[in-house]
Each structure stands twice: as C-alpha cells, then as structure tokens.
Design brief:
The chain is 68% helix and 11% strand. It is an alpha+beta fold. The chain has two domains: 317 residues, Outer membrane efflux proteins (OEP) (Up-down Bundle); 69 residues, Single Sheet (Outer membrane efflux proteins (OEP)). Strands 1-2-3-4 form a four-stranded antiparallel β-sheet, with no helix packed on it.
Length: 426
Amino acid sequence: MNQIKQILFIVFIVFISLPLSAETGIFSVDGLFKAAVKNREIVKSYEIAVEQAKLAISSKKGNYLPSLDAAYKVNKLAESSKFENEKNSEISIFLTQNLFYGFKDKNEFDIAEIDLNSVECDLDILIQDISLQVALSFVAVYQAEAKRAVAEDAYKAYSERYENTSLKYSVGVATKRDLLVMKVEKDDASRNLIQAENEVEKALNQLRLITGENLKLENLDFSFFKSLPEFKSFEEYKTIMLSKRGDLKKIKAGLKKAIASENLAKASFYPKVDFVLSKRYNSNNYNAFDSGSRKDETRAQLKLAVNLFDGMKKYKNVDKAKLEQNKLEHRFNELADKLSTELENCILDAKTSEKNFDVSKEGIIEAKENLRITQLSFDNGSAAASDVLDSIYYLSRARNNEINAKAMIFVTWFKLRRLIVDFSVN
C-alpha cells in the first residue's frame, strides 16, 4: 500500500510540474528572442536555404573528380560495308578528367561558397529583424501595462473622492454639483481603465504572434526596465555597425561573387584540356555482349579544345561582370550613408528621450504636490471639486508622460541595437 502511495505521489508531482514549466515560465526579453527564432516558420525556411547552399558547395567539389560514363549503341545500315557490318552494336566506357579550363572549377567553387555566405547573411538579417519586432512588442506590453496601472490608480482616486463627497453631501457640506462632477469623472475613469486593459491584451496578442508563445502578463519579466540603458558616441556605434551589418556583408559578398564571375567568364578564353581513357566493345550483331563476335579497343586520349569565335559572348560576359562590381560598389556606399544617417538620428532620439524622461519625473513630483495642496484646500472649503479632479488628471498625465518617455528610451535603444547588430540569438 505504501509503495502504491509513493508511486501516486511521484505521478502527481510530475503532473503538476510539467504544466507549470510550460505554461507559467518567466520570459526575459532574451528568452523571448530565442522563442521567436525557434518558433517562427520563416526562420526554418531560411535555415533550409543555408543547407541547400552547403549542398551546392559539395556539388561543386565534384568538378575536381573524374567523370565515368557508359553508353550502349546499336546500328542498322542499308547494307554491310568493308568496315562495318549491316547490324552492329557497341558498348563504350569513358573515364574523363579535366586538366585545365582557365580555373573554371575553382571559380565555380568560390561562387558557391560566396552564395552560402550570402544566404547566411539573409538568415542573420531575418533573426535581427525578428528580434527587433519582439523587443518593440515587449516594450509595447510594458508601456500598456504601466498605463493600465495609472488608469487603475486614477479610477481609485476618483472613486475615493466620490465616496468622500457623497458623505459630505449627505450632511450638507458639499453641493449636488460637486457630487455630480465627481460621478462624471469617476465614470470616465472607469471607461479609461477598461480601454487600458484592452490595450494590454492587444499588445500581448501582438507579442504572442511574433514569438509563437501563448504568453500571459505574469509570464513576462519586466525587471529589464528598472535601469535605463547607457548610450555611447556616434563614432563608436558607426564602427561597429559598418563591420557587422548583414546587409552590408551581403553586398560585399555580391561584390566578391561579381569578381569570381568575371574570372569565370575569362575562363572561356583559355583552352580546355581533358584526359580521356576509353574502352569500347564492338560486335557484328545487336548483342554487344556476344564475346564470339566482339572486338575490344582501349584508348587513351589527351584532348585540347579552344573556342575561336562565339559571337563576342565571352567579351560581353566579362563586361557584364565588371558592371555588376560597379553597381554593387554604388549600392554599398548608398546603404552605408543611409545607415549612418539612421544611426545619427537614433542617437538624437536617445538624447531627446532622456531629457523628456528627466522632465517628466519632475512633473510627477510637482503634480503630486499640487494634488496634496488642492485636496487640503477642498477639505477646507477654499477649492472646488473640479480643482481636485483637475489635480488627479494632471498627476495621471504626468505619470503617463514618464511612461511614454521611458518607453521611447527603450524603443530607441532596441532600434540602436538592431542598427549595430547587437541581438545575439543562439
């Protein structure tokens, strides 16, 4: 009996622990990055593209190896000749090894490796973009929840003032107008709270979509927002950005590919040299396997072939590859300038957000003091109910301003991290 109880107890522990780890796990922002990359189907498709590029490299390695071919041929002539019977057949086996073709094999292999590098850049760009989407959605949830808390506090404040005014009205201290004003503001605060709760759920839905996780508010770790990020200088970030950006790396890879394509096009100017070892079995009937009538021949050949004229296609292909290099150089410079401008503007946004945040903190202190003084004046009969309501509104607005300014600092910070490729997802 005791053994059965022990087994049931273990099963119970396992049963309650598995759902907890799956459903109520706490996600930091880095954990959300990893979840999104793991769950998104688009990432899996890009990973397949990387594997395809690797297979293409393996395929190009085969160009360095000899090729082995076999052929079976039957002939029917109108009549036999001195050299060939009316009915004959042939089995041929060829072993061919290319010895030289203007380094065509090497250039094709180089292009395959560059293609792999380019596809890996595409995957890196995608992961960085998804990470930014996750980060911005995470900030949106934090911002919506913080504003919901402000709306809840405002509703409680209005409700408390309404109850106090209702008591005063019942003993003739407050007027009917004061009571009605309080009721109107209390109802409006209730509607604002409902809308704020709706905004939280909408922000969560967007985060669920991007990460592929069934997230709840209690699953998110907002401790990341306790301390503000520190920003470095524009020049420091620019150096990092220009060396790490996947889109710039991809253009550089394209430039290398254009150079390799030019060399590949120049290969057609060189002669092609092949070594061929062949074995032929000829028979005077349709059965080339008939050893009685079969003649064997073994031949080793060194073949040299060169194109003398192809309608100037060789020259056009070389010119095309050179133009591709020029085009990519212009694109690289254009993109580098564009990213530098975005980085500079991002630094400006960061400085502005930090200033706004400092101002908003002072505004909260002033709004709290204003509410305290106005409440005392109202209690003493020297201020109207509308003055108290205005003070509560001013405090809520000041808190929302602080939330918006803080959220903008983190939005700018995450955009900056995307610019310098700072999202690390294994």
